[in-house]
Amino acid sequence: MMRNKQKRFAENRERPNIFEPEKPGYEEIKGNWHDKYFENDNHITLELACGKGEYTTGLARHYPERNFIGVDIKGDRIWWGSKDAIDENLSNVAFLRTQIQLLEKFFVDGEVHDIWITFPDPRPKKRDIKRRLTSPRFLDMYKKVMQKEGWVYFKTDNPGLFDYTLEVLSDRDDIKNLCITRDLYHSEYIDEHHGIKTRFEKMFYEKGFSIKYLKFQWN
């Protein structure tokens, strides 16, 4: 397994659709995604903690007129999404290897249109609350890099994380058009997902867990 990981890391260093430390452009891409990589002015959507990038590549197939960037710190995971994008000639896909809390190092204000947060680590321990990707400090960061008309989309199987997120959002006065369902697959919002499922989503759904989903915009 370690040998496979090392092989993937080596391949990542050669792949043009992966931005990671020590590669050309990694430190300079902030504010330049449209000009230096995508070579268009189309909207940029992020998938945060993207894992294998199922939503990044899945949405890119459905929306060739938009750009998609999967963000994750695990290089052996984004290898899979990168490979799919290359194999399918998805030129509207990129992957960024970094920690989510460093997002502002790679995007200027308003550079991002939409953000997807799909099945993040629920961080159930109290000491880890600030590390939850829907905690106030992360939401403040998303708002800064996003355009106002963009959407934040959030999916989880974890009821505790979902309830926590709703509490955080209820304390804010800068969101609008909040849509909520505790059972995505029996809701009016299911068509927005185009049948795309992450690895964790498939696993939990097959075990009978209901999938929680919400989306909102900024005021």
Automatic annotation (TrEMBL):
PROSITE patterns: SAM_MT_TRMB. The keyword tRNA processing applies. Its EC number is 2.1.1.33. Keywords: Methyltransferase, S-adenosyl-L-methionine, Transferase, tRNA processing. One of its GO terms (molecular function) is tRNA (guanine(46)-N7)-methyltransferase activity. The keyword Flavoprotein does not apply. Substrate binds at residues 125, 157, 198-201. It is an enzyme of class 2 (transferase). Pfam families: Methyltransf_4. It catalyses: guanosine(46) in tRNA + S-adenosyl-L-methionine = N(7)-methylguanosine(46) in tRNA + S-adenosyl-L-homocysteine. Coiled coil: none annotated. It comes from the Bacteria. Pathway: tRNA modification; N(7)-methylguanine-tRNA biosynthesis. GO terms for cellular component: tRNA methyltransferase complex. S-adenosyl-L-methionine binds at residues 47, 72, 121. Belongs to the class I-like SAM-binding methyltransferase superfamily. TrmB family. Catalyzes the formation of N(7)-methylguanine at position 46 (m7G46) in tRNA. This is tRNA (guanine-N(7)-)-methyltransferase. It comes from Mangrovivirga cuniculi. The gene is trmB.
